[in-house]
């Protein structure tokens, strides 16, 4: 039929993109994998061979179970397929067990659970407004979005080389976002509650959900003068939300509450014994803070203002999670990072309460919450930048301003993931995939908003170009110098500090767009 033609067209290119990226994932099965591979193998073993009451107590391996209960059940489900590949991987005592069958199973489990992500991307593509149907598919916002999400560089290297299940988790997140765009708010809230019980890092985005649902779902109508009248508040909707969210949490934590294990589970989920910065410093505000502290202490020693003997032995050289003591600047506690995070995101939350801009305003607020917590959070992992890059992709194909921020954020954020892959064979892979993704995002977004408009200005271009010499120095030149032995952490420090500026800048640019309102340059459908 005439109506079905565009839909089939969509299906064919979407399938091609999915198969293409799946092929790359299969080719990466033999690639290097990090200790996260052993973490997940250990969790398969724990959930398979121990009763639920022991899951959060088991500590044979140093990689104890520290994700919420739904993720533990997810691993439990996988373990029933794993036993057909190699039963030995399900023995808790088999530390660092990695037979070919085990590797094959774990890699395939990531590739197949990514189908949740593929479905979510398909739903998100339906939500973007492409104006009139463009003559060439390649130039349509939904096509560009599908590539930016399915072929996202960060997800490819973090999940399919480094090893984790982020694709599956982001699938649940993006599906929840798509449901809000489609006005199916209860489904969206349900999915987000499930997501929080799969991985609690998404708590960072929870304030955006809470305020958006209260303001745009529970308040039924706005007054013409913009004032809030509580009689417009639907307690039935609030009750429905409450029942959905509470029942998900009850299902998740109920068994552990019954076993009197709630404190133990929570202590595993929120370990504040870890340091301010992760092993590989995430490119955030604290990386700049630590670098400033380091610089000041070196300067102080040179100028004889500080006594070397009195300084804390700060070993930032290692790659392991450890406490970093500040020599000059005051030390930072988890509470301070929490306060900084809350201050950094509160204007965005106020904004969607007082001037709600529908699902798009909500999504921008999610991105700001993810970025604020990335910049100021405690023990942030550099992978957390994907929580901002992926949802921002959706806004980037609709508004020129967001596209500009996306290019800066994605390029610096993805480059800061490079230290995760430090093995030689993976070097050309990460360079090529990064170049492919970055070139595509620059060219396709430029095409989307007509060639004559500039998405980024000269200063921004110069900053981004600086990433190339930085990378050449860190990866190729520095290892040849004599400093490699004495100061092995310098490349990491340089990458983190340089990328931190771009990410902080993106944060402020996004705030500017939020407070001013985006200029949509693609022709919008008239509602």
TrEMBL record:
Pathway note: Protein modification; protein glycosylation
Domain of life: Eukaryota
Transmembrane intervals: 12-32, 137-157, 188-214, 234-259, 335-355, 361-381, 427-449, 461-480, 492-515
Enzyme Commission no: 2.4.1.-
Compartments (UniProt record): Endoplasmic reticulum membrane
Membrane topology annotation: Multi-pass membrane protein
CC annotations in GO: endoplasmic reticulum membrane
Enzyme class: transferase
InterPro entries, alphabetized: Glyco_trans_ALG6/ALG8
Keyword Transferase: yes
One Gene Ontology molecular-function label: dolichyl pyrophosphate Glc1Man9GlcNAc2 alpha-1,3-glucosyltransferase activity
Pfam families for this protein: Alg6_Alg8 (PF03155)
A biological process from GO: protein N-linked glycosylation
Keywords carried by this UniProt record: Endoplasmic reticulum, Glycosyltransferase, Membrane, Transferase, Transmembrane, Transmembrane helix
Family statement drawn from the similarity comment of this UniProt entry: Belongs to the ALG6/ALG8 glucosyltransferase family.
Protein's name according to its UniProt entry: Alpha-1,3-glucosyltransferase
Native source organism of the sequence: Scleropages formosus (Asian bonytongue)
Lineage, top ranks: Eukaryota, Metazoa, Chordata, Craniata, Vertebrata
């Amino acid at each position: 039929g005439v109506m079905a033609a565009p839909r089939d067209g969509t299906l064919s290119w979407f399938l091609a993109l999915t198969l293409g990226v799946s092929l790359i994932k299969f080719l990466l099965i033999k690639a290097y994998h990090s200790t996260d591979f052993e973490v997940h193998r250990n969790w398969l073993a724990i959930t398979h061979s121990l009763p639920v009451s022991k899951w959060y107590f088991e500590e044979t391996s140093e990689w104890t179970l520290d994700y919420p209960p739904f993720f533990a059940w997810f691993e439990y489900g996988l373990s029933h397929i794993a036993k057909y590949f190699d039963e030995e991987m399900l023995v808790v005592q088999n530390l660092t067990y990695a037979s070919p069958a085990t590797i094959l199973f774990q890699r395939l489990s990531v590739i197949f659970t990514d189908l949740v992500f593929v479905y979510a991307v398909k739903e998100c593509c339906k939500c973007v407004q492409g104006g009139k149907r463009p003559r060439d598919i390649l130039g349509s916002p939904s096509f560009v979005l599908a590539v930016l999400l399915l072929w996202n560089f960060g997800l490819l290297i973090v999940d399919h080389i480094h090893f984790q299940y982020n694709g599956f988790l982001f699938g649940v997140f993006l599906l929840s976002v798509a449901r809000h765009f489609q006005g199916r708010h209860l489904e969206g809230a349900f999915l987000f509650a499930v997501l929080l019980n799969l991985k609690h890092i998404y708590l960072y985005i929870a304030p955006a959900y809470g305020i958006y649902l209260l303001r745009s779902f529970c308040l039924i109508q706005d007054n013409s003068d913009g004032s809030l009248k509580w009689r417009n508040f639907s307690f039935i909707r609030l009750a429905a939300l409450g029942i959905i969210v509470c029942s998900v949490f009850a299902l998740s934590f109920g068994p552990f509450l019954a076993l009197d294990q709630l404190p133990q589970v929570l202590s595993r989920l929120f370990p504040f014994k870890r340091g301010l910065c992760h092993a590989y410093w995430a490119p955030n505000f604290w990386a700049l803070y630590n670098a400033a502290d380091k610089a000041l202490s070196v300067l102080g020693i040179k100028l004889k203002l500080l006594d070397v003997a009195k300084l804390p032995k700060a070993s930032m050289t290692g790659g392991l999670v450890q406490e970093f003591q500040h020599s000059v600047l005051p030390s930072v506690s988890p509470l301070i990072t929490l306060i900084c995070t809350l201050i950094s995101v509160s204007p965005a939350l106020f904004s969607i309460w007082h001037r709600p801009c529908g699902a798009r305003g909500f999504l921008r607020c999610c991105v700001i919450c993810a970025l604020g917590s990335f910049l100021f959070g405690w023990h942030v992992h550099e992978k957390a930048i994907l929580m901002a890059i992926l949802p921002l992709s959706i806004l980037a194909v609709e508004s020129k301003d967001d596209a500009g921020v996306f290019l800066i954020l994605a390029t610096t954020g993805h480059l800061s993931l490079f230290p995760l892959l430090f093995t030689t064979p993976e070097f050309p892979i990460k360079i090529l995939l990064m170049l492919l993704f970055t070139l595509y995002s620059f060219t396709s977004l430029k095409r989307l908003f007509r060639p004559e408009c500039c998405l980024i200005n000269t200063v921004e271009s110069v900053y981004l170009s600086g990433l190339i010499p930085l990378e050449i120095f860190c990866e190729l030149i520095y290892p040849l110098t004599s400093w490699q032995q004495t100061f092995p952490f310098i490349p990491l420090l340089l990458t983190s500090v340089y990328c931190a500026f771009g990410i902080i800048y993106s944060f402020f640019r996004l705030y500017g767009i939020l407070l001013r309102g985006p200029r949509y340059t693609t022709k919008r459908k008239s509602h």
